[in-house]
Amino acid sequence: MTDTQIKPSADALMRGPAGGGAVKPGLDPVRVIRWTLLAMGAIVMVMPIIYMLSASVKYPHEMFETNIIPESPTFFNYGRVLEDGRFYRWFLNSLVIATVTTVSAVFFDALVGYALCKFKFRGRYLVFIAILSTLMIPTEMLIIPWYMMARNFGWLDTYWGIMFPGMMTAFGTFLMKQFFETVPDDFLEAARIDGLNEFQIWWSVAMPLVTPALSALAIFIFLGNWTAFIWPLIVTTSQELYTIPVGLTTFSVEQSIQWELIMTGAALATIPTLVVFLIFQRYIIRGVAMAGLKG
Amino acid sequence: MATLTLRNLVKAYGKTEVLHSINLEVADGEFVVFVGPSGCGKSTTLRMIAGLEEITGGEIMIGDRVVNHLEPKHRDIAMVFQNYAIYPHMSVRKNIGFGLRTSKMAPADKERRIDEVAALLSMTELLDRKPAQLSGGQRQRVAIGRAMVRDPAVFLFDEPLSNLDAQLRTQMRLEIKKLHQRVRNTIVFVTHDQVEAMTMADRIVIMKDGHIQQVGTPAEVFHQPRNIFVAQFIGAPSMNLLDATYADGQIRAAGASVALPLELPAGSALTMGIRPDDLSVAPGPGLFSGTVSVLEPLGTETLVYVDIGGGHEVIAKADGRTPPRLGETVHLHADAANMHLFDTSGEALR
Amino acid sequence: MATLTLRNLVKAYGKTEVLHSINLEVADGEFVVFVGPSGCGKSTTLRMIAGLEEITGGEIMIGDRVVNHLEPKHRDIAMVFQNYAIYPHMSVRKNIGFGLRTSKMAPADKERRIDEVAALLSMTELLDRKPAQLSGGQRQRVAIGRAMVRDPAVFLFDEPLSNLDAQLRTQMRLEIKKLHQRVRNTIVFVTHDQVEAMTMADRIVIMKDGHIQQVGTPAEVFHQPRNIFVAQFIGAPSMNLLDATYADGQIRAAGASVALPLELPAGSALTMGIRPDDLSVAPGPGLFSGTVSVLEPLGTETLVYVDIGGGHEVIAKADGRTPPRLGETVHLHADAANMHLFDTSGEALR
Amino acid sequence: MKLYDRLSIKQKQVVWAWTFLAVPVVFYVVIRFYPTFDAIVLSFQSWNMLEARQWNGFDNYATLFADPVFWKVFQNTFLYLIIGTPTSLIFSFLIAYHLDKTRFLHGFLRALYFLPFLTSTVAMAWVWRWFYQPVPVGIFNSFLSSAGISQVPFLNSTTYALPAVLAPAVWAGLGFQIIIFMAGLRAIPISYYEAARIDGVSNWTILREITLPLMRPTIVFLVVFSSIGFLRIFDQVFNMTTNNPGGPLNATKPLVMMIYQTAFNSFDMGYAAAQTVVLFTVLLIVSLIQLRLLRDR
Amino acid sequence: VEIEYWQYIFDSRVTAMNTLIENFEAANPDITVNQSTFPYADYRTRVAVAIPAGEGPDVVQLFYGWLNDYVEADLIQPLPTDTFSPERIEAEFFPMVQAMEMDGAYMALPTAVRSLALFYNTRLMEAAGFEEAPANLDELVSMAEAMTQRDGSGNITLVGLTTGMTAQDHHWLREVLNRQFGAVPYSDDYRTVTYNTPEGVDALEFYASLEGDAGVSVSGFMDEPQAAFRAGRAAMHIDGSFRIGALQSTPGLEWGVAELPAGPDGTQSNYASYWVNAITSKAEGEKYDAAVKFMEYITSDEAMQIWLETVGELPARPSAALTPENTADPIYGPFIAGLEYGQATVFADESAQRQVLVDAVSRILLEDQSPADSLAVAAEAEQAILDAYYAE
Ligand SMILES: Nc1ncnc2c1ncn2[C@@H]1O[C@H](COP(=O)(O)OP(=O)(O)OP(=O)(O)O)[C@@H](O)[C@H]1O
Ligand SMILES: Nc1ncnc2c1ncn2[C@@H]1O[C@H](COP(=O)(O)OP(=O)(O)OP(=O)(O)O)[C@@H](O)[C@H]1O
Ligand SMILES: [Mg+2]
Ligand SMILES: [Mg+2]
């Protein structure tokens, strides 16, 4: 008898469509209809995005027409957005800020989520609830105290000033706590016996076990920072520090908005995230999916 | 390698005490198996030895050091978990080497040590695989390898075989046993499977509800169980137990009577126990007779479930080639010397 | 209740055929067990009978109806799954009653039927619990109850005991067997544990790689295995196998020779098989002799692993009370009548 | 180190826990709790950001509860909640349920449904605004009018504006919810469905009695988080109604927007803080009620 | 010395200010002016957050309506009376600037002012056979009717006159229509609402009828009035002088400007507004002196002319504005003419007050409330805003 046979569990193998029947072969009209409806729904879902892309390649005067395919597609707007070079800078700023914030938030959210999930100590429920309750205060109300703080510490008009409020997030802490519930304690205890300290256990044992979750959280936080507007606006003075969303508002002037430029800027801002998403789709979806596994 | 001593060990969760004054000495190089039903406190004891669980009372000594307040890493132990706890994101080599991370060995020595252990477990060619590419038995061996690599004084195993299927389990228990014969570390092994306990242990510790019921070699606990619990727990199928009364050198149970002089007052209530192996189906009037209700052929032998009337069913063994038929009336024979007797409190009388 | 017939049953996933022309007749009321190593196609066969998996080729008949294209619900079957598939959010009563939802019985009759089944499985007082409040064995019984409530012609079980621990498994297999003796439905039961197969089955179907290896009663497959695979798969511990050669009415293996006249050309290569039960440790020169490398005491008996030289290790049985010692040199005796012989292709010679 | 060694296992855990939490706790106290606390204090003061803060007791709250606009806004906020949460959950569940049963181009369809989650609210608000225009520019109305149906004044109406503003919010969050639902669906063992098929119960029964109850944790998660989202809705409304913020006639104005306007258009910070405290209370109560109702009974 | 100057982002304004700074620095080599600019939409918030924190500029550009708050909070310093004597300013600037005087000193001064005028699409006018822009409201309505286009099902596809209370129309209604129909919108100190009179109702009714009975417009048509006009889908459009630049850069659009149509009895009125520059309390010592010098320069005739040429906004001094060249300009002329009878509303809370009028019209159009009732509600609401503001 050998023990080398490797066989994934039957459930995993049979994971086709749930309740997928096997008795009737061939094209089932129910499936055809279902697929068609889903495909139509999907098209409706992406319509606004297509519209945005279409608007970005229209001439300003054509902006107000309902046609989706522009009469004469042009990269004129892209030229205008990119010509003065500020956009590149904003893009870079957004990238730096969103990346650093994401790394920090993922790090700390995982740290806190882990501590709240895996250490038993008095007051942890309280800490957890207190952190969660911060979800219930709108950011707008926090701006003034943050601004005062940033001024007192000399963070105004700096990268750090833009980033500091987002260095940790309650949502991420919640998610990470959920994820760590799925990590069996045995892994941690084995490492404890092997002589690692708690920090090493977290970093080199627990963290690698939740990588899909980390990637999902990273996407959420990155997107959140990539589109953040009001705080970066308030805390920056020089245009060199603008992020894309703040920069885009310079395309709206008194009482009138240059929509074709906003659309172009938005398209430029969205395209990288779309590309990243499409490349890492499976990974991201798996991570996002983990978020819902345990309520 | 070292002795292990538990002295008046107590564990309480909140107010409920789950381990009550456990005392045990494990000799250097001994293979001790803890066995008992689910929830009896086996894992808790093991985890206290490992330093994963706080000690409520008493003392644990490894060698001649009291380790009560030492961190796991300083206790010179290694542990193998039920679900193996091998890291899915690391190769086998890294998994095994994980136990050496904090050691001060030179990297080259570490590598050599890993290769050594891998060779011992015949896994050299698997070293670069990830756990997902291994079978259950192989994963189990990786877990053992990770424990072995540090050459600890005491090995702790917590039901390491219970996730394997029957065939693999048999094979792995043999491997572990052979390994122990080679390396001779002190081993404490937890299981709830009495066959595992019997086949592997130098000594078996049988626990129930946080108390040790009996400590002894496999032969001792099988042939001289200290009480009904041990008698029933050890041996498969379980010992047949019948209510009996004693009077005038005769024990009466389920309509049968056996001459056995005991120093007991007449009319004493007893429990009589006979192992299925000691109850054979043979022609001619024996101890009991009854009709066969179920047959379980095992090949060479067949288990015969016999309804002996009065709501009693006993299990006997018959030859595998010529078993009785279902519904047939059979006679069961037993040797008085093989009978076990227990008093009303369950303690063995002899 | 009905017969079940599989005729040239074929299953392919995409291009890989995993079941190759399976033929089997199951009599009305028969208890048939499918056994085989993991991945051999047991579950697939069962699921095809249930109608959960499409049939690639051949025919399945239940009673005298070809059911190939019937929906599961119209096949008059019930199935018990390995993980029980009982709904955690429903009480036991609702779980059992789930099978009756589509039946046209009056609600009062349904209740009566549920109570009846619960009584049969002695779970009446558990009816209002949720599955989370049940032990493993009790959950298993709920799953059986749900299958029974509809009183189907054929019961299908897919490894229903493999999630239970050893003791419970032994107990549940007895319960299922008794149940069958009472209700007498046709049962197809899948397992990879040969002990389960042996003890429960009226007939055993042994499968490997999508082929049936042998069909027969437990005694048949144990005593007359058709090939090496069956010989090794059935019986624990496994049959000892040794390479042998035949010449002049003598079979030579591992230094021993046995007189056995066979109609074979001289110098033919053979495999000789002896079950551990048939290899006994006794004084005086026997078939083999060697040193004891491992002892596995099982109580009444002890398994003795003997190294007979030339890299061969065989398992023998010795008495539990006076087993040999480790390292001792022992003599092993066997009766030529109990030897199994297989040709180079693995087929049994006699 | 010596001292640490003498601690029991439990005490060591406590020490480690707080070591892990030290920096975050400081962060939360300084960056989150202090400003929150400040907002609560501020709700009893009057402050226009320029002058010194002055205590005025419960005046802000008195004004707030006497303000008909507040009650209108309060009602809107709940409308967003009670229309938005069920709609988005039902849609996402239906899509997830059917998408889960589809194999052809499964990944591609799933990606399309997820894409809106990645877009910028500002740009998308504009697009939707454009869709809602009357003829000749609005797609919806052009469509209606070419079908001979009279136009719907989506955004310029006190009845249609709120749902119209809600639609893009639902749209943008749908992809996320679909993925979560699909994960929940996948986590249900197949054998549950197979057992039900053998029992012969209808798809509808399976959905109602097996799928939905087993998805409870997923549903709780989504209900709570999507409710928090809808109660805090702002970006979509703000960007869809830039011409007449929260209008027409406050028909679309949610509480967060009222807070924003009070704070940054009227610079009545104390009043805005009082509104924030109310919002905070509402969010807390709604979340707690949902958890209570949905946690398994 | 370095001083900090803030204004909002508008390309031509930034360019103009850069020119002014360049000129100023050339004349004062020891002073450096740093200009920071912020997106228009959030400029007010940005300034309000920064200045109290002492983080803001030394010289800041503010909308005139916001100034009160800053003055009361002592965040703005009065201009020195020696260089900016009230008498001189009264003599040299358009009278509406006098709102900037407090306790005998000027708190702030504008470089430029703005007013409203009527833009019209020349081609559509020609196509409808009109040669002249409407001179009064009746003509406005009838011409708009003639130029409105509809599709088969009666939906308007081109409006005769844009409407949009959220754009400039609330100013038109408040300061222009009210007065033209005989109402006085506010008391002199702008602390009391006085438009809730039958005349005021007439004005409101007239405005509402543009979309209602007359049917020459749809509010929210193409989202924004100016967008409709720029897209050539509106024949006439009332807007401020700041729109000139955007229209000039719209290719293919032919347009003209006229003074706002006169009222039924020939009354002319206009709404004027301006952005002022002020010195914040942050500037002290030599920075203050530098700031004063800078203020002096940017309120000079020279600066105003540069501003007019670069931005298209009208000089705040008649001496710079009313040059023959400017008054005869077909584009600037009508705006400059409007300045002479322009009114600058003193707002307590501009956005709230705007909302009151926006809602008043919405109630009539969306909820069928009578103009009289709607106006009464509006007057009460606006009075409440004023009372709350001035009570402090
Ligand atoms: N963290 C805990 N809090 C409270 N009680 C606990 C805790 N852990 C274990 N127990 C209780 O302690 C007793 C012993 O548990 P333990 O895990 O040692 O049993 P075990 O013998 O290992 O059983 P099994 O064979 O099921 O693993 C049980 O009754 C259990 O309920
Ligand atoms: N959906 C599937 N697609 C492709 N191959 C499959 C699928 N399901 C099963 N198989 C293959 O069919 C063969 C038979 O599988 P089956 O599940 O019937 O084995 P089994 O005998 O039940 O094994 P086990 O004891 O592990 O349950 C295996 O080789 C398996 O890999
Ligand atoms: Mg345990
Ligand atoms: Mg199977």
How is this structure best summarized?
The complex is a heteropentamer, with 1 copy of chain A (295 residues), 2 copies of chain B (350 residues), 1 copy of chain D (297 residues) and 1 copy of chain E (392 residues). By secondary structure, chain A is mainly α.
Description:
Chain D: Belongs to the binding-protein-dependent transport system permease family. Chain D: The chain crosses the membrane at residues 14-34, 78-99, 111-131, 169-193, 214-234, 272-294. Chain D: Keywords: Cell membrane, Membrane, Transmembrane, Transmembrane helix, Transport. Chain D: Residues 74-290 form the ABC transmembrane type-1 domain. The complex is a heteropentamer, with one copy of chain A (295 residues), two copies of chain B (350 residues), one copy of chain D (297 residues) and one copy of chain E (392 residues). Chain A has 295 residues and is mostly helical. Chain A has two domains: 3-56, no CATH class; 77-294, MetI-like fold (Orthogonal Bundle). Chain A has helices at residues 10-13, 29-56, 76-83, 86-118, 124-133, 143-153, 159-163, 170-181, 185-193, 198-209, 211-226, 230-235, 244-249, 259-279, 281-293, and strands at 252-253, 256-257. With 297 residues, chain D is mainly α. With 392 residues, chain E is of the alpha/beta class. Chain E has helices spanning 11-27, 43-50, 67-72, 86-92, 122-127, 137-147, 165-180, 198-211, 225-230, 244-248, 286-298, 301-311, 318-321, 324-328, 332-340, 350-367, 371-391; strands at residues 2-8, 32-38, 59-63, 76-77, 101-102, 105-106, 108-121, 149-150, 156-161, 234-240, 255-258, 270-280, 314-315, 342-343. In chain E, strands 1, 2, 3, 4, 7, 8, 9, 10, 11, 12, 13 and 14 form a twelve-stranded mixed beta sheet that branches. In chain E, strands 5-6 form a two-stranded antiparallel ribbon. Chain E starts with a strand and ends with a helix. Chains A and D meet through α2, α4, α5, α6 and α10 of A and α2, α4, α5, α6 and α8 of D. Residues 42-43 of chain C line the site of one magnesium ion.
